[in-house]
């Protein structure tokens, strides 16, 4: 569906008035609504699907929180806002939004308590050995590269993946709690309802929306503001071609039906600036269970390119964007276990040379890579990439195997990170950094905390955290 | 300076009316003006600098043309629009604009004749051994990767860099000719004049501009349209942080003072879509003269990552964006010559091991890279990256050297490629792909032919080619 921005003077009048209109009911939309209602605003949430949840409900349900949350303390981990900030700044890297990172790290202890107060249950136990989405109902996991080179030397590591108590995939648990909280809050919800247009006053302010439901249009004035929380654009091939073509090669696009970028396009048409539309989170969860981190990830030239004990979100980023999604995890019979997510062995060989031939690597390349790695590993070192114990050991035990990590055959999970430019209160900004009056946003329609170096849980984290702030700001207006 | 888009109803009236207003007088602005005047339009060109030229005048002056231009024929090269299209599609890769590529390849023979008719002189001689900017006044050079792996097997190679007859840097020659042609055309020019605002009608059409000259404002109505030709944003650090932070590490930003993205921001504020704002052209001209292509470009792990005989625009892209701008060109005493652009030797060693230690590579890494390369090169092969004769030879002759290609110490030349979304007639498009009435653009304010895999001359090429088309379209409206 094409969206548009129209002159508010072009309609006879609004059918209805509220304080805040929220477009989309994922974790960001729910949090905007809750924030707005808490601040006393009459709030309407519209969602194009038949019910709430969005991509948040399809996610692993991890929320990246720290600084010493109640859950971290219960599990015996120390953490501070400062260490969390240092890690996030280093792992996200250039282009990060320091203002957002600072307010987030300062506020996550309170934010965790708020999430619990909304009804999200957490079990006070820690799970080791798998990232992001534990197969149990344990509450705390490592969901980033905190504990590996180079980050462990930059900031004191602590696990910060907070997972709602539900074995396997906790996203539905998070969203059913938040949707119930929205219902209980007194915010109105309208499902099967799209926002097809924004109305703009002559001074540039956004004052209302055109809503479409089963072919009927309705015009709603938003006295405080309109918040765009419609998610990213990983399902929109045309936008991917314009911003990040490589993402189309990934076998798994992490998305609900709505992630077609409609809200981002709507905001751009209203004159919003954008940030980091080329950034994506790409996961290559081939090192689950973690024993597989002892493998060597090599590219089409048989070269290693990363410390394999890094978080799978970092592996995927390097594999897809720097090595064209053509790589293999080289394993030996000493540590090999079956990968969790259905990755296949592309080939097996009695020697590195035989294995290299089988997968079509240049002659001598894999032998040379393994030889250099083994020589250093025997001394407990990885001067190329800084991999560490317990996953640093020479590959010596035949047969050797190559786990297929090419995009054609393997699971790469991707979603978009960039979006509309926004400030720490969820105001949408124009290309000069000025607030567009009446326009708000949160979640993956906006450019948030993670614009590279993804750690799991940052999207639900900033969607809920900055969603609340956006709701309060729109209510105050 | 911050720009804005204002309601046309907010001003008392326009001070002046013309058919077409062109903002910026680089190669794109000049060509819009010439195209508009040819189509009979009363045209005003405003330029914020004291005279015309812009970044085009700071460039090497190469124009990428082919398909059998008069110059190619005079130099004895065969070429067709089909082969040119195949090369450009393959080298630019995913995200390219096929509609623009097709009309460009079909039209470049005529376009070359038009450029000559504007007064740009070309000497009918071919120069071999250096790319892009020959030290002579020869007219034709290789300015891309046409003749190297993998492109030589995809499309029949032909040199397509058309260089105005001026030894060294031909950009000023191109622009002095085009500026003279603009003067002679009857278009009016206003220098030291900025466009600080666009005026928008209630139906969304752009109808005029606010011009600022020495602190005085003037409002000009544009009956046909306003064309944004203000260049890219390589001088705007804030925009680089939002779209391509790595570019800030490059020592040479190829830009005139005006490349601060003002026109792109103006278009975005008017609700334009954008494409590929993360894309940059990064040149690492370390293999000039070409004898240096026999070297091995290695990263911080001592690994090769590209066929070193590729065009320097391709080398820079890989070095900066895939290897963090940390690399060295390994040479031996058998072929070493002094690099053209002041690259320094970071270290010299009697053996690869000694050289590797000197530049801080992991022990054994460089030895292993050279050993694998030499073994294949002795058989005339480079199965890793496809480098070819005459630059494929084993490195055997001590001493060995490492030419410093780290961003801290070496010349990386960068400019932005992405910009406003436009069609083949220079209409600026909204995020849904609809024309914004009255708004046009060309050159590096728009996303053009090259959105990756840069070949030199594509920017002057599409700026002039699609500039002419935009001028005609605005004149017709």
Task: Give a written overview of the molecule.
The structure is a homodimer of 477-residue chains. With 477 residues, chain A is α/β, with parallel strands linked by helices. Chain A has a domain at 285-404: Flavocytochrome C3, Chain A, domain 1. Chain A has helices at 27-38, 70-74, 81-92, 98-117, 171-185, 237-243, 262-269, 312-322, 352-358, 365-377, 458-476; strands spanning 4-7, 16-23, 43-46, 62-64, 140-141, 161-163, 188-190, 193-200, 206-213, 216-228, 252-253, 274-275, 280-283, 296-299, 327-332, 345-349, 400-404, 413-416, 419-420, 427-429, 435-441. In chain A, the strands form five sheets. In chain A, strands 1, 2, 3, 7, 8, 9, 10, 20 and 21 form a nine-stranded mixed β-sheet that branches. The first copy, chain A, has a four-stranded antiparallel β-sheet with strand order 14-15-17-16, covered by helices on one side. In chain A, a hairpin with a 5-residue loop joins β20 (427-429) and β21. The longest helix of chain A is centred in the first third of the chain and has 20 residues, at 98-117. The mean pLDDT of chain A is 96. Chains A and B meet through β1, α6, α7, β12 and α10 of A and β1, α6, α7, β12 and α10 of B.
- The rounded Rg of chain A comes to 23 Å
What's the overall geometry of chain A? elongated
Summed up, the helix count of chain A is 11
| CATH arch. level architecture of the domain at 285-404 in chain A | Alpha-Beta Complex
Largest sheet of chain A: 9 strands, mixed
Features:
homodimer, Flavocytochrome C3, Chain A, domain 1, 477 residues, alpha/beta, 4-stranded antiparallel sheet
């Amino acid at each position: 569906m094409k969206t548009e921005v129209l002159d508010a003077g072009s309609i006879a009048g609004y059918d209805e008035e509220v304080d805040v209109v929220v477009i989309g009911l994922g974790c960001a939309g729910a949090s905007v609504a809750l924030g707005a209602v808490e601040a006393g605003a009459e709030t309407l949430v519209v969602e194009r699907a038949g019910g709430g949840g969005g991509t948040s409900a399809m996610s692993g349900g991890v929320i990246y929180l720290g600084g010493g949350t109640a859950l971290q303390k219960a599990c015996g981990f120390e953490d501070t806002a400062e260490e969390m900030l240092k890690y996030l700044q280093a792992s996200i890297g250039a282009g990060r939004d320091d203002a957002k990172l600072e307010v987030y790290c300062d506020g996550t202890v309170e934010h965790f308590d708020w999430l619990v107060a909304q009804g999200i249950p957490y079990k006070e136990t820690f799970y080791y050995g798998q990232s992001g989405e534990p197969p149990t109902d344990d509450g705390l996991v490592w969901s980033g590269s905190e504990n590996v080179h180079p980050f462990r030397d930059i900031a004191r590591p602590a696990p910060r993946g907070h997972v709602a108590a539900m074995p396997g995939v906790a996203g539905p648990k998070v969203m059913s709690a938040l949707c119930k909280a929205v219902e209980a809050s007194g915010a109105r919800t309208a499902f099967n309802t799209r926002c097809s247009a924004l109305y703009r006053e002559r001074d540039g302010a956004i004052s209302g929306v055109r809503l479409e439901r089963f072919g009927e249009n309705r015009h709603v004035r938003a006295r405080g503001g309109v918040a765009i929380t419609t998610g990213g654009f990983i399902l929109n091939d045309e936008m991917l071609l314009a911003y990040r073509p490589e993402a189309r090669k990934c076998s798994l696009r992490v998305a609900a039906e709505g992630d077609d970028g409609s809200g981002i396009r709507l905001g751009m048409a209203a004159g919003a600036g954008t940030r980091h539309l080329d950034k994506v989170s790409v996961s290559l969860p081939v090192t689950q269970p973690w024993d597989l981190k002892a493998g060597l990830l090599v590219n089409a030239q048989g070269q290693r390119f990363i410390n394999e004990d890094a978080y799978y979100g970092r592996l995927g980023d390097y594999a897809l964007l720097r090595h064209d999604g053509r790589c293999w995890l080289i394993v030996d019979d000493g540590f090999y276990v079956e990968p969790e997510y259905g990755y296949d062995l592309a080939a097996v060989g009695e020697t590195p040379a035989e294995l290299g031939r089988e997968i079509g690597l240049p002659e001598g390349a894999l032998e040379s890579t393994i030889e250099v790695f083994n020589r250093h590993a025997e001394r407990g070192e990885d001067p190329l990439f800084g991999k560490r114990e317990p996953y640093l050991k020479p590959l010596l035990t035949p047969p050797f195997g190559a786990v297929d990590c090419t995009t054609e055959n393997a699971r790469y999970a991707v979603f978009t990170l960039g979006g509309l430019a926004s400030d720490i209160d969820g105001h949408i900004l124009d290309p000069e950094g000025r607030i567009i009056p009446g326009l708000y946003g949160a979640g993956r329609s906006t450019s948030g905390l993670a614009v590279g170096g993804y750690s799991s849980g940052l999207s639900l984290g900033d969607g809920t955290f900055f969603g609340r702030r956006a709701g309060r700001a729109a209510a105050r207006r």
